[in-house]
User: What shape does this take?
Amino acid sequence: MALTDELVRALGDVSSDISVSSTLPPACYSGTDVLAAELSGLLRRSWLGVARADELKAPGDYRVLELAGTSTILVRDDEGRLRAFANVCRHRGTRLLDGAGNAAHIRCPFHGWTYGLDGSLRGATRMGATRGFRHADMGLSEFRTAERGGFVFVTSTDETPDIDDWLGSFDSLLAPWQLQDLVTIRRRELDVDCNWKLFLEVFNESYHLEYVHSATFGGIYLEPEPPDEVGDCVHSSFSPTAGTGGLRADEQDHVLPAMPGLGAPERAGTRYTWVFPALTFAAGGEALWAYGARPLGPRRCRVTQWVCFPPRTLATPGFEAKSQRYLARMDEALAEDIAVLERQQLGMDSPFARAGRWSDLERGAAAFAAWYARSLVQF
Ligand code: FES
Ligand SMILES: [Fe+2]
Assistant: This one.
């Protein structure tokens, strides 16, 4: 999908120097041609953070996800490996699975072709008269998957660089939080009436905290530290907090135990990380809360929320009641953000919307914008 010259020029004003850069042009948040370019290029050639690995525990556990406009089956195979396949029958194209569940094999509802959890075609009746038909040629189209920090990443092209190049120093920077060991206690999906990028941006700027979250937790957050060098496709910075960022300001005495690997410096705040383009999370002193967003259209997105705790915290007395306060804090924050995001979308839809400028409290959103502006044109 070709981008207009005007848009390419406007994207050229977006750079990683926050002091001179523009924000992304409004067309990036409302145009169907931009969405088409994202779906055919940028989102397809990226590693998309799509799940927590512990969502799919047993062999045969699967979930169908819409990734870059492509229905995708994420499944744990018989060897315990997570795999991703195009949700398309190799016979005549029928969608194979919906929703989530457990299946010993993947069976097409149309003519009964049956695939193993490794994607290979295991059974197809009445194909004996078809010359040159070989089961080995007719396996499901497979996408690359990777697991890092307990997150599952998927990409649907071979051109995407290796996951470790994508993530840079992610593993070492996040090591104290031992993300791979955390247990997901909440996975929730919701649809929001804003562009998918707006949803992820708000999570990565602290400018709005005192305006949007002043009644709940805004005052807990202190001046963020300068961002850490991670890699081209990841932004991460540490926000010191007065108390825990995982609870409302007036509920601080219900704090759960700190994550086992954290020292005093990490316990003194929350690390905000965005793995471009589609996954962002906050690694707090006691909990991880994460969001994925993917487009349903230029003005609507599907958001996944995950909230995770260390296994030993789950075993502490009173965990059930205390964790509810964390979940309530996440949901209140979400509601406050969504209210303002839907207003932002309304403004972005105006023909009079123009690219703006960044505050130095918007470094995460600005870093993404610079990456996005480069990538949208390149991809
Ligand atoms: S389309 Fe799947 S078996 Fe025919
Ligand atoms: Fe917010």
About this structure: The two ends are 10 Å apart (CA to CA). Residues 5-47+164-378 form a domain with the Naphthalene 1,2-dioxygenase Alpha Subunit; Chain A, domain 1 fold (CATH 3.90.380.10). The mean pLDDT is 97. The chain has two domains: 5-47+164-378, 48-159.
